[in-house]
Write a structure and sequence with these properties.
9 helices; three-stranded antiparallel sheet; alpha+beta; binds heme C; Ribosomal Protein L30, Chain: A
């Protein structure tokens, strides 16, 4: 084979490995070089069955290991992460399904809930707001850093902090930044000796509603779902159709009683509900029977079966999109505008002075 033709073969091999197999570029170059060498110098012929089969086998092995095995390795290497609950108590996340909840997962699967409900909260974008404060000493340097930041991002150069950073007061530098620009602003300002405060806001219609930063939120979760959330799900019932609300975080928004009612007859709670009834999970209660979970529907009284109890245990355990993870943080407000903790306990003080991670 001529040098020119073998070079084309090498080029083809490296483009396929880079663009289609997604290999790291030095590896793709190596593959290309190897192919060039093989066709050009070693005179491997494309018209022999052996070469063709060998090439096919090679490509199969490379793609299998790059796309299937590596991804599988990444996912199966997932571990617990530390997070905090509403009261700030640390715990290890995710929590394995306890008691009847594991059986409830089976009922969920068998009842086909996944046909109408997803369990995956998404977000659309993350935006960061940056505030800065300069003292007398570093005021000029901070002012210079602000101008440099505006110039380098081509943002507005009039109004607000561009006109003048007041000494000893927090001033908003820019709102709605992407992570790259926000960390640029933070680096410029920190290098100039100014104090920097960053607020992180996630937007997306699945997330909590916020009048200003996320008006279209449906309140299905505080953060997006990530692979770690499904560590104990067998199998993860992600779903693909949303006829009803997403349930990844349903345990955080309903009580046991409300969930029982939704299963028995959702119209007890909402007149025009489209959710089907699941009466097969309930039994008629005997006349005058007393109990925690007797549900009145019209003139009949119902009690949940063991299956209903287990299913509701499972639903209550679904709090996937509630707790922040390193990989999927939740909104972080400006720490400088939080009310000052009255005679601050040491721990609180440490919290407010912690640097805020901007580049997540
Ligand atoms: C045919 C589609 C469909 C099926 C199947 C279905 N649901 Fe629903 N579900 C809905 C709809 C629609 C709603 C919204 C109801 C409303 O508007 O009040 C809903 C609401 C809910 C809610 C309340 C959610 C919230 O955020 O308020 C829960 C909990 C729920 N479903 C659980 C289940 C469970 C558990 C199953 C399986 C046993 C199931 N659903 C099966 C359609 C369905």
């Amino acid at each position: 084979m001529t040098i020119g033709l073998s070079f084309l073969c090498g080029l083809l091999a490296s483009s396929v490995s880079y663009f289609m197999l997604g290999l790291w570029w030095p590896v793709a170059l190596l593959v290309g070089g190897f192919a060039w060498l093989a066709f050009g110098l070693l005179d491997v012929k494309m018209n022999s069955t052996f070469t063709l089969l060998g090439g096919m086998l090679l490509i199969f092995c490379v793609s299998l290991s790059a796309m299937v095995l590596r991804a599988n390795d990444q996912l199966s290497g997932l571990q617990f992460a530390n997070t905090q609950d509403e009261e700030g108590t640390e715990f290890r996340y995710p929590v394995p399904l306890l008691g009847q909840a594991r059986y409830g997962e089976k009922i969920y699967k068998a009842s086909g809930c996944v046909a109408c409900h997803t369990q995956q909260v998404t977000h659309e974008s993350v935006e960061l707001d940056v505030k800065a404060m300069a003292g007398e000493k570093n005021h000029a340097a901070a002012q210079e850093a602000v101008s440099r930041f505006y110039r380098s991002t081509g943002r507005k150069t009039s109004g607000g902090a561009a006109l003048g950073l007041p000494v000893g007061e927090w001033e908003t530098i820019e709102t709605g930044l992407n992570p790259a620009d926000a960390s640029k602003a933070r680096n410029f300002l920190a290098a100039a000796g100014a104090s920097v405060d960053v607020q992180v806001r996630f937007r997306g219609e699945d997330l909590m509603q916020n009048e200003h930063s996320n008006p279209e939120g449906r309140g299905w979760g505080r953060r997006r779902s990530v692979a770690q959330d499904y560590l104990f799900a067998e199998p993860p019932m992600l779903g693909s159709v949303r006829i009803g609300p997403d349930l990844a975080n349903v345990g955080a928004r309903h009580t046991r009683d409300a969930l029982m009612r939704i299963l028995l007859n959702p119209r007890i709670i909402r007149k025009d509900s489209k959710m089907p009834q699941h009466r097969f999970l309930f039994e008629e209660a005997d006349e005058g029977e007393q109990g925690r979970h007797i549900i009145q529907d019209g003139d009949k009284a119902y009690k949940p079966t063991a299956d209903a109890e287990a299913l509701v245990d499972y639903l209550l355990s679904l709090k996937g999109a509630n707790y922040p993870l390193p990989e999927a943080p939740v909104n972080q407000p400006f720490t400088s505008s939080l009310p000052d903790p009255a005679p601050a306990p040491a721990e609180e003080a440490a919290k407010t002075t912690q640097p805020v991670e901007a580049d997540k």
